[in-house]
Amino acid sequence: MGNKRTVVNEAEQFVKRLLTEDLTKDHQYHDLGHTIRVRDAALELAKAENCTAEDMEILEIACLFHDIGFCKVYEGHEAVSRQIAAEFLQKHDYPEEKAKLVLKLIDVTYPPKYPANLLEKIIKDADLSNLASLNYMDYLDALRHEWGVFLNRQYTDDEWNIMNYKFINNHQFFTDTAKAIYTEQWKANRKIMKKKRPPKDKPESAEPLVVKTPGSSSKSISMDGLIGKNKSAQMMIKTSLRNHLDLAALADNKANIMLSVNALIITIVIPLAASYVSDGNWYLIVPMVSLLITCLASMVFATLATRPIRMEGYTNQQQIKQGRSNLFFFGNFYRMKYDDYEEGLRTVLAEEQKLDSSIMRDLYYLGTSLGGKYRQLRLCYTIFMWGIIVTVLAFGISYSMSLS
User: Are residues 217 and 240 in the same domain?
Assistant: First the structure.
């Protein structure tokens, strides 16, 4: 137990030092105080949910590291948090299986992700326990300041109040304990935000959300992209992308099954049949050749179904500016220099329309690739089915003829 607490204590000291030294005065929400509050809330929930000491240790380490990435970046900090945590745990010889659980808990704090088990539910509830805090309005002011500084997002009071009312109104706590101890204050905070909304006869957002571009006081970029302003579209895109990835994995599994089955037939059945032919059973030649052709043809199409697509690995800046490439797919940038990739990605992220285009392009090409996989896979299974039928019929006819 002493060694376990030593790792936790060292993790706490490491995180406190990093958050104290590397965060700026503009990190008013995601600061050391937030990390400690999340850790304490998580341990309180875990204790009430009767978690084991080992689970509480894993949970505590995950909470300490969950926002450490803000020391390096603002957007995408979860990935950096995972990396820093992984390096720390490896340096301290933390068990690999437990380290994986820690990293998974950090990963699930990314807002769109849905918790799959009790520990994940606890860290999600703890991370957003501020929604049920007496200081909720102060935390909102701190978050608004951060977004203005680090994301260049400027909101009117009406826009800010509408957005946060929608968020707190749609939020749900996952654990029974969180529902029991947070619901009353959460409802009170929700009522406050409801009163702060503009009157119903006033448009919810008279002006689009505007982002001031660095180095310019006059140029602005609309953040109301086709997908960005439509929650239903976002949900459909996420669902479609996830379904495409799942179907691609399923297609690869089916193709691998066909490769394995046909390889076994060629390795075991064909040599066995060949030995019978050499002993004078000539009637087996036709069914043996039919089976061999079936297996080879099935393996060819199964291989085509799993073969990676051709990738150039490079995208020039002209293609990026014209929205004719997707820099979120590794096949379009793995041969690019980092500076070129960063410049291109900033170009995409600076305009909502280009970002929408990248999302739709990703969905389209995932779909076309998936269509190709399933077309090859269908041919593979069709050839195998009819080939086996022809082989069995050929064997029956050849055997009957050998008897007459």
Answer: no
Q: Provide the residue range defining the domain that includes 189.
A: 143-221
For 49, the 3-state DSSP assignment is: coil
Residue 89 belongs to a domain: yes
Q: What is the pLDDT along the chain (404 residues), one digit of tens a residue?
A: 445 568 899 999 999 999 999 999 999 999 999 999 999 999 999 999 999 999 999 999 999 999 999 998 888 888 889 999 999 999 988 999 999 999 999 988 887 788 889 999 999 999 999 999 999 999 999 999 999 888 888 888 888 999 899 889 888 899 999 999 999 999 999 999 998 888 654 444 444 433 333 333 333 333 344 555 556 666 677 777 777 777 888 888 888 888 998 888 888 888 888 887 777 778 888 888 898 999 999 999 999 888 877 777 777 777 766 666 777 777 777 788 887 778 777 777 766 666 777 777 777 777 888 888 889 899 999 999 999 999 999 888 888 887 76
Q: Return left, alpha or beta for 76; rule: phi > 0 is left, psi -120 to 50 is alpha, else beta.
A: left
63, 175: one domain = no
Same domain, 116 and 161: no
CATH of the domain at 76: 1.10.3210.10
Count of domains observed in the chain: 3
Which two structure tokens, joined as six digits, stand for 353? 């329309």
40 shares its domain with 78: yes
With 0.85 as the threshold, say if the pTM is over it: no
Are 263 and 277 within 8 A, CB to CB?
A: no
Which of 196, 221, 246 is the last residue before a domain boundary?
Answer: 221
* 3-state secondary structure (DSSP) of residue 129: helix
Question: Which of 192, 221, 250 represents a domain boundary (last residue)?
Answer: 221
3-state secondary structure of 348: helix
Rounded-to-5 percentages of helix, strand, coil across the chain: 75, 0, 25
Same domain, residue pair 111 and 60: yes
Edge to edge, the sheet with strand 210-212 lists: 153-154, 210-212, 220-222
